[in-house]
Amino acid sequence: xxxxxxxxxxxxxxxxxxxxxxxxxxxxxxxxxxxxxxxxxxxxxxxxxxxxxxxxxxxxxxxxxxxxxxxxxxxxxxxxxxxxxxxxxxxxxxxxxxxxxxxxxxxxxxxxxxxxxxxxxxxxxxxxxxxxxxxxxxxxxxxxxxxxxxxxx
Length: 153
Ligand code: HEC
Description:
mainly alpha, Cytochrome Bc1 Complex, Chain D, domain 2, 7 helices, binds heme C
């Protein structure tokens, strides 16, 4: 019955050493298994796509947007669906009588606004030439053959 008490106990110093070694191992493990989150390179590659997109947007300086870019950014909101009675993009029947007015009249109306259509389609920072490009793009979708003023670099 004295087997528990009689069992040889490890020397106290050996116990302390074992404890210290275990603690050291735990710290080392914790350091190695840190999530990849703190890896600067991995983080950089994850935010890269966002940075690339904003760069792409910045590259198109005001004044040098193509008709399609202006259309997508400003005009599609109404003309894409024919909202407010606007001639719908690609609808030749709706655009025919409008196109018959000629490019200059269409452009004048697009710049100054006409009835429910706000001046420049609400794109206050659009240059006259950019509106002309968008008018050409939009009217051409409905059957016109207007030459879109080129973007000069
Ligand atoms: C807020 C809605 C709206 C936006 C945005 C808009 N339009 Fe319009 N647009 C209209 C409406 C409505 C008409 C029809 C006006 C009418 O004849 O009563 C119209 C008509 C036109 C016409 C025909 C004008 C004519 O003389 O028959 C052109 C060209 C045109 N828009 C170009 C554009 C361009 C280019 C943009 C983008 C820069 C644009 N629109 C953005 C609503 C819009």
